[in-house]
From TrEMBL:
Residues 20-86, 104-170, 191-259, 276-346, 363-433, 449-517 form the S1 motif domain. GO terms for cellular component: cytosolic small ribosomal subunit. GO terms for molecular function: mRNA binding; structural constituent of ribosome. CDD domains: S1_RPS1_repeat_ec1_hs1, S1_RPS1_repeat_ec2_hs2, S1_RPS1_repeat_ec3. The keyword ATP-binding does not apply. This is 30S ribosomal protein S1. SUPFAM superfamilies: Nucleic acid-binding proteins. Belongs to the bacterial ribosomal protein bS1 family.
Length: 553
């Protein structure tokens, strides 16, 4: 009996399953949403049918089916074995997942719930966490279509002791995408024309799907003309024909172009736009240094700020032209190699200084508004936005120019005479004092050596002031007489009429150089020539007397 008891106990110890292990059982009944399972050794247990169902499906279980369950306890309060299909699946799954993780293999699973920061995934009994960032290669707004669908995942991290598993769907997609990209890129060659679908549009270009791989169509390669916004010519979902410009085998980046499939307008530019020819164009862009004008789609030229206006020198181009404005321009230079055309705007209009010179020759009287006053003169506004300058010395005949300048204000209307026009230097000289022509009238016919009669108007210590036909002059003391004793201003009186000799006519200063002394010397010289000589022995008195007597006769 003792030997039999020992054998019996040994048999129980060897065959009775341990709590906390996975055992095999057979379904003996299905009732009330539960399956009754016989795990042997006269032990039965109950398991909810939902534990045998896959996510989103109903349980497919029949009497007689063999299943594996997890034995929690040999006997519970009801005298039944406490078993669990979920725990059995979990243990089985962990063994399988640990092997897959070690071998870096994919595992199948289904997303069945949403949690903070991501989703829960059933990996065939083990629950894993799928972060939101690992769902797809692009942010997913609606994960509804993905719920309950069996699909592959990559295990990123797992800890059996803590029961943590982190998986990624994105890694699978990227790997598949990379394989697809490599295959597509392998079939592409530079220069090849292919069809693609516009997937995304940015300010610098558009991304075109070539069938599993995206290429960048830069804004500068969309058309030969300037494209400010890619949305002007493309829309998302549109099918376009593009040319493969460049393929980077390392980064798998593809550069695309549309304009390369069109005729290059620059090939005919030199023949079509001759130098110095004028054309209509449209302003497409304005910068600090000028404006770009489109002559035709794909052909633009630059009007430099220095070529925009004859008169507006230091203004922003935007104050002369505006975007989309139609303008007439002249072709100044063409560089086909650099694809550059230099244009001129002012060349289509006549030089205003040339026009002024034609319409206002020297001596013409003009009228204009004082635009600016500087320390050296006045700037007067003329036709066609040009200015003329009145120098200090050309303001008045009387007094200092600096003093006369104080009498003028901006906005004053003044009259002046054109004295010089320099078209090359863009300079016009004016004179206000030249308006007074009394001196020219008074001295008409008077020249150096002439004898005129003047009237004494003032007696000064240094000489006398005289007037001739309204033009005043001053005779210095030394010019009052040939005889030093008679060089006394006080011997004259205001109102006296005196004959004098003209020694100089200065139209610029409006002054006559006069001298009584010069007149006397001239008269003496003339008398000597007519009535005697220094060698005749006649005295000066005899000669003058003879001359006087001749005059009396």
């Amino acid at each position: 009996m003792e030997e039999f008891e020992a054998l019996l106990n040994e048999s129980f110890e060897m065959d009775t399953p341990d709590e906390g292990s996975v055992v095999k059982g057979r379904v003996i009944a299905v009732e009330a949403g539960q399956a009754i399972i016989d795990i042997g050794y006269k032990m039965e247990g109950r398991v909810d049918l939902k534990e045998f169902a896959e996510p989103g499906e109903s349980a497919d279980l029949s009497v007689g089916d063999e299943v594996e369950v997890f034995l929690d306890r040999v006997e519970n309060a009801r005298g039944e074995a406490s078993i669990s299909r979920d725990k059995a699946r979990r243990e089985e799954a962990w063994d399988r997942l640990e092997k897959a993780y070690a071998d870096e293999e994919r595992v199948d699973g289904a997303i069945f719930g949403r949690v903070k920061g991501g989703f829960t995934v059933d990996l065939g009994g083990a629950v894993a966490f799928l972060p939101g960032s690992q769902v797809d290669v692009r942010p997913v707004r609606d994960a509804g279509p993905l719920m309950g669908m069996k699909q592959p995942f990559q295990i990123l991290k797992m800890d059996r002791r803590r029961g943590n598993i982190v998986v990624s769907r994105r890694a699978i997609l990227e790997e598949s995408r990379a394989e697809q990209r490599a295959e597509v890129i392998g079939n592409l060659t530079e220069g090849q024309a292919v069809d693609g679908v516009v997937k995304n549009i940015t300010e610098y270009g558009a991304f075109v799907d070539l069938g599993g791989v995206d290429g960048l169509l830069h804004v500068t390669d969309m058309a030969w003309r300037r494209v400010n916004d890619p949305r002007e010519i493309l829309s998302i979902g549109e099918t376009v024909k593009v040319q493969v410009i460049k393929i980077n085998k390392e980064t798998h980046r593809i550069s695309l172009g549309m304009k390369q499939l069109q005729d290059d307008p620059w090939e005919a530019v030199a023949a079509k736009y001759a130098l110095d020819s004028t054309h209509q164009g449209r302003v497409t862009n304005i910068t600090d240094y000028g404006a770009f004008v489109e002559l035709e789609p794909g052909v633009e030229g630059l009007v430099h700020v220095s070529e925009m206006s004859w008169t507006k020198k230091n203004v922003h181009p935007g104050k002369i032209v505006s975007t989309s404005q139609e303008v007439e321009v002249m072709v100044l230079e063409i560089d086909s190699a650099k694809r550059r055309v230099s244009l001129g705007l002012k060349q289509t209009m006549r030089n205003p200084w040339e026009v002024f010179a034609e319409n206002n020759p020297v001596g013409t009287e003009i009228e204009g508004e004082v635009k600016n006053i500087t320390e050296f003169g006045l700037f007067v506004g003329l036709d066609n936005d040009i200015d003329g300058m009145v120098h200090l010395s050309d303001i008045t005949w009387e007094g200092r120019g600096e003093d006369a300048l104080q009498d003028f204000r901006k906005g004053d209307m003044v009259k002046a005479v054109v004295t010089e026009v320099d078209v090359e230097k863009e300079r016009i000289s004016l004179s206000i004092k030249a308006l007074d022509g009394s001196f020219d009238t008074a001295t008409e016919g008077v020249k150096r050596g002439s004898i005129i009669t003047v009237e004494v108007t003032s007696i000064e210590d240094g000489g006398i002031e005289v007037e001739y036909e309204g033009a005043k002059s001053f005779i210095r003391r030394s010019d009052l007489s040939r005889d030093r004793a008679e060089q006394r201003p006080e011997r004259f009186q205001v109102g006296d009429k005196v004959d004098v000799r003209v020694t100089n006519v200065d139209a610029k200063t409006r002054r006559l150089g006069l001298s009584i002394k010069a007149r006397e010397i001239a008269e003496e010289k003339e008398a000597v020539e007519q009535y005697g000589s220094s060698d005749s022995g006649a005295s000066l008195g005899d000669i003058l007397g003879a001359a006087l007597k001749s005059d009396d006769d």
